[in-house]
Amino acid sequence: MTASKIGTAFAQAYTERLQSGQADSGALQQLYAPEASLTLNGNRVEGSQKIAQALVESFTSGAKRKVYGVDSQELHTGGVLVSFRGEVAEPPMPFSETFVLVPVTGSHVVTNHIFNIITSN
To answer: Best label site of 10, 27, 37, 64, fewest CB within 10 Å?
Structure first.
């Protein structure tokens, strides 16, 4: 599978899990490696369980996210760099999100994740 297809599939799965409220059930946590790290608007979070918890706390279940574009590149190490941008609604706020995915048996998991709300500052 190409980096582009992996990135697009990941963006869809991630957004669906975050919006559906499945994050509470651990479905979101399964996308992350146990030692993954997240920088959420400048605040660093370590570990898949804490990341899932931080995302659930930061984004209300059912919050609408519109993804406007997904860009992906294959990394020299065999992983995939995925970047997407979009809008988190109510009120609409533009965001940028970047992930490093690494291959595991038949799939990929997130090892690094950066999320930023884009402000005019």
So the answer is: 64
